[in-house]
Amino acid sequence: MTQSPFSLYLADDAATSTLGAVLADRAGPGTVILLSGPIGAGKTHLARAFIRARIGADIEVPSPTFTLVQTYEDAAGDIWHADLYRLGHTDEVIELGLEAAFETALCLVEWPDRLGPLVPANALHLSLAPEGEGRRLSATPADHPLLRGLGQ
């Protein structure tokens, strides 16, 4: 029996922020969330909402487009926010230290296609796409623990 894909319509930025907060509440060290979608789909918005829910609503959360990785201290363990858009080869992922972070930190990775074979087996892959006034979230695996109880 095949599993139905997980899909959720996020009507606006507030809905995306709420999802980020829900995921942040459920995540722990070793959680890896992969964020895919075109430029402007809401990947960074979701990551910011996640980070702010964990460590404070007023914290500045810059996009890691140029730094590649931003790290934040959290009581449960470090949070790594990576934007791999500018990477050209998977070897650069290793140089960033992401492989080790996948084991111990909360990791949010934009443009995860750059990971190649380094994608952790337990990762939650969230794909965002513009739809109407909001965005459509698709997630795999559909039965990932972070998604339990969320609408489909």
Strand line-up in the sheet with most strands: 1-7-6-2-5-4-3
The CATH topology of the domain at 14-117 is Rossmann fold
Average pLDDT over all residues: 90
Radius of gyration: 14 Å
Low-confidence stretches: none
What is the number of strand segments? 7
> Architecture of the domain at 14-117, CATH level 2?
3-Layer(aba) Sandwich
Shape: globular
Beta percentage is 25-35%
The first-level CATH class of the domain at 14-117 is given as Alpha Beta
Largest sheet: 7 strands, mixed
The helix fraction, in percent, is 25-40%
Sketch the topology as an H/E string, one letter per element: EHEHEEHHEEE
Task: Calculate the terminal CA-CA distance, rounded to whole Å.
Answer: 18 Å
Structural class: alpha/beta
The CATH superfamily of the domain at 14-117 bears the name P-loop containing nucleotide triphosphate hydrolases
Number of helices: 4
